[in-house]
Amino acid sequence: MVAEKIIYYEGRMDDFDKLIPELKLWNGGSGIDPESWVSHTGRFDLAVGYSLMFWPSFVEHKGYILSEGFSTDSLESFEQTPARSKASIEWVMNHIHVLDLHGHDTPSEEQVRYLGRNFSEIHRVKLAHDFPEREFIVEFNDEPGLELIDYQFSFWQKTTDD
C-alpha cells in the first residue's frame, strides 16, 4: 500500500491524493505515488509542451522584461493608456490566469492554487537566473474562495516605489 503522498515545501503541505484524485484508484485501491502515476499515464509530447511553462523564456524589449512571444501591438496599446507605469504595463503583459492552462478541464480550487504557487516560484527562479542584475516582484493572489478565473500570477521589475 502506498502511503498518502504529502509534500512539505516552504512551510506548506500538499496532499497529492486531493490534488490528483486518481492516485487512490490505482493498484486495486491501494494507491500510487504521483511520480509513478506520471510515468504510467504521461506522454512525452505533453512533457515537452509543459516544459515551456515550467521553464519559461523571457525577452528584454524597450526596457521591459516580457514573456517570450508577447504581442507588440498589445504592448503599444498599453503604453498609450493614461496613468500607466512601466510596472503596470509589465504586470498586464505578463499576467497569466492559471485556469487558462487547460480550457477544457474544470480543476478544483486546490489544484489551481497549487499550480499558481508553483508557477510563481518557477518564474522567480527563472527571472533571477536570466536577469541576475535586476530585481523582480512575482505576485500570485493565493487566497481561498476566489472564482477560479481570478487566480492569476504576474511579474514586473522592482522599482523604488515597490
What are its keywords?
disordered N terminus; 162 residues; two-stranded antiparallel sheet; single chain; 18% strand; elongated; 3-stranded antiparallel beta sheet; alpha+beta; 2 domains
| Unreliable spans | 1-13
Q: How many DSSP E strands?
A: 7
Straight-line N-to-C gap: 50 Å
Number of helices: 6
Enumerate the strands of the largest sheet in spatial order, edge to edge or round the barrel.
Answer: 5-7-6
Shape: elongated
Structural class: alpha+beta
Largest sheet: 3 strands, antiparallel
- β-strand amount: 15-25%
Task: Provide the domain count.
Answer: 2
Compressed to H and E, one letter per element, the order equals: EEHHHEEHHEHEE
The pLDDT mean sits at 89
Structure notes:
- The chain is built from 6 helices and 7 strands; from the N terminus they run ββαααββααβαββ.
- It is α+β, with helices and mostly antiparallel strands and 162 residues long.
- It folds into 2 domains: 1-42, no CATH class; 48-157, no CATH class.
- The strands form 3 sheets. The protein has a 3-stranded antiparallel beta sheet.
- Strand 3 and strand 4 (64-67) form a beta hairpin.
- The longest helix has 22 residues, at 109-130.
- The radius of gyration is 18 Å and the shape is elongated.
- The termini are far apart.
- Residues 1-13 have low confidence and may be disordered.
Helix and strand arrangement:
Layout: E1 6-9, E2 12-15, H1 16-19, H2 34-41, H3 44-54, E3 58-61, E4 64-67, H4 72-79, H5 86-94, E5 96-97, H6 109-130, E6 136-140, E7 152-157
Antiparallel strand pairs: 1-2, 3-4, 5-7, 6-7
